[in-house]
Write a structure and sequence with these properties.
globular; five-stranded mixed sheet; 10 strands; 12 helices; alpha/beta; 335 residues
Length: 335
């Protein structure tokens, strides 16, 4: 009886492995689609890595309401603050990629933190994927009642030679980088004070514990009656709620940071089925047309709406490098 050809045996083995892998992928695809078709079949958890209050929390809770209204989902919004948002982000990055654990956080914590931190317990390039970015609109630059300034030039003139404290709602956030920009561009001595969200930050601005802060219009407006004044807004256009307050660009501030507009990004663990991501995106787009969403945008002075999944991915690929460059240019390091 002839002996089997060793080469033939190896070719047969390779063919069997390829066939098995192909069959496995073929069987797995309908399973993933079937699971997505039943989505949601259990409670959805939305992690916010900040304390309640502020725009991030407001968007997360509104999105949770839309999930319930449109998909009948049971939703839990969990405020998991601490570690400069690292704790909350880590919880989502390590969650199963099935659409039942989502993240709503500031874009800064998942864009520029790639260069602001040398060590993170997750990989921001690989572990999370964006679904949409809820716009934040122009942010208000507000000063405490004790600061005798009506615009940026007057603030800089007053601040020269003084020890200043500037509020930030998270390490690596827009106000954190803005403090570094003020120090570099104008030679100011700015000590950044990090808070776990906007609400306590603006309370301390009103009380004079910090002299200046940057944040959403709605959170700023809670203390505007207590003497906190807006001396500028971020981004390329004025806030609809502060039409008489010029942008920082109009006031002569230059650099890669000032024209950028951040937001609050909704993310899922990488590997979440595409059909689930599309379903979540559809909830965002439809929810943006509701009276509740219109009211939120009005309250926070936000003129634009969140985009669909395809548009979000396109903008993400364009904006992430710009934010990374802004953070790299300023040389801020958080560890």
């Amino acid at each position: 009886m002839p002996r089997p050809d060793p080469m033939a045996r190896r070719r047969f083995a390779r063919h069997s492995l390829v066939l098995a892998a192909s069959l496995g992928a073929t069987l797995a695809a309908p399973l993933a689609l079937a699971q997505a078709a039943k989505f949601p079949s259990k409670q959805i958890r939305i992690v916010v890595p900040f304390q309640p209050g502020g725009l991030t929390d407001a968007y997360a809770r509104l999105f949770g309401e839309h999930l319930t209204q449109q998909l009948g989902a049971s939703v839990l919004v969990e405020n998991k603050s601490g570690g400069g948002a690292v704790i909350g982000i880590d919880a989502v990055a390590k969650a199963p990629p099935d659409g039942y654990t989502l993240l709503v956080t500031t874009t800064g914590t998942v864009m520029q933190n790639r260069v602001l931190y040398t060590k993170l317990p997750y990989n921001l390039d690989k572990d999370l994927t964006p679904i949409t970015v809820f716009p934040s609109g122009p942010l208000a630059v507000g000063v405490s009642p004790s600061v005798p300034a009506r615009n940026l030039a007057e603030f800089v003139a007053w601040a020269k030679g003084k020890e200043l404290s500037m509020g930030s709602y998270a390490p690596g956030s827009y106000p954190h980088m803005m403090a570094d920009l003020f120090s570099r561009n104008y030679g100011l001595k700015v000590q950044v004070v990090h808070y776990r969200g906007e609400a306590p930050m603006w309370v301390d601005v009103a009380g004079g514990q910090v002299q200046v802060a940057v944040g959403s219009y709605q959170a700023f407006n809670t203390v505007s009656t207590r003497g906190v004044k807006a001396i500028g807004v971020t981004g390329k256009y004025r806030s609809p709620r502060l039409p008489d307050v010029p942008t920082l660009i109009e006031q002569g501030v230059t650099g890669t940071l000032v024209p950028l507009e951040g937001g609050l990004v909704l993310m899922a663990p990488t590997g979440t089925p595409e059909a689930v991501l599309q379903a979540l995106s559809a909830v965002v787009v439809k929810g943006a047309e509701t009276p509740q969403a219109a009211k939120l945008r009005e309250n926070f002075g936000i003129p634009n709406k969140p985009k669909n999944l395809a548009e979000t991915r396109r903008d993400w690929d364009r904006d992430v490098p710009a934010w990374i460059k802004a953070a790299s240019d300023l040389g801020v390091k958080l560890d």
